[in-house]
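Q: What structure does this chain adopt?
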Amino acid sequence: MIVQGIYRTKLEKYRVLVDDRLRQAVTEEKNPRIRALLWAAVENGRRFRPLLFILTYKLLGQEPDACAYELAAAIEMLHKASLLHDDLIDGDDYRRGKPAFHRRYGPEKTIIVGDLLVALAGTRFQRFAGPELTGDWLELYRKLCYGEFLDVISGDEEVDRPFIEAMIYGKTAGFLEFILGTAAALCQAPPSQQHLLAAFGREIGFLFQYLNDWNNWSGRESAIGRPAGSDQAKGRVNLITLLQQEGMAPEAIEEHLRLVLAAHRQKAGQLLKSLGIKNKYTAFLGRLLNRRETDWYWTDPDG
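A:
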């Protein structure tokens, strides 16, 4: 798959640097038992969010410095904290084919380690980004919590598309919006470019969440321990379940999803073009936007 190949080649050197910063952040913890748990929580992953942060620097013609990689590590720590809590709340026993953290260490340690990661990530972000951006970081965390809350109550609410979009924005799209917009701000890009990059992040956030929901529904995730339709079986609400409630047939749902994905792809492509930047990094992102849905999905033992 093309995206898997890119992760294994072009992005690998940046991924290694992010991993090094994560390892350094964890080793600062003096208690060996806590240190081991923190590392167990962060050691695996594709590092999609921190890599987007680093690639934004490259796109804007700047070389990421040590500070940028520290911030990338903070972003990954916050993301991992959200996954720990999300898996526990949702009762997901597996993540990327491996037992979820709460299955290995129990719910109590999962809650505490997640909270610790939030604190460590926030401290690191403030230290390396400066106080002027700390408010944005806190707002990001509020959005994550709000999105998770909407997810939790969705089974008890009358859900419509604005509700689902608000949930996705809080849990996913708002995070990517923050990542690209913050990187652009730290690069001192013009305000117009900061806005465009943040909006680009928001669009790909929606794109990836809809793809994730589709992957679960279609059965692509069965190879990593999540049976087809497991989200629906657990009563989770997303665009697919809403379309099912509206009486839409499976074939019509797939066609509708293709149209939704195409709309977000088109908007993201327009935002990228409006940046007025032509280099190998904008070309790279443009190519990724046009890949098939299945190219964004693969089973990965690294999580």
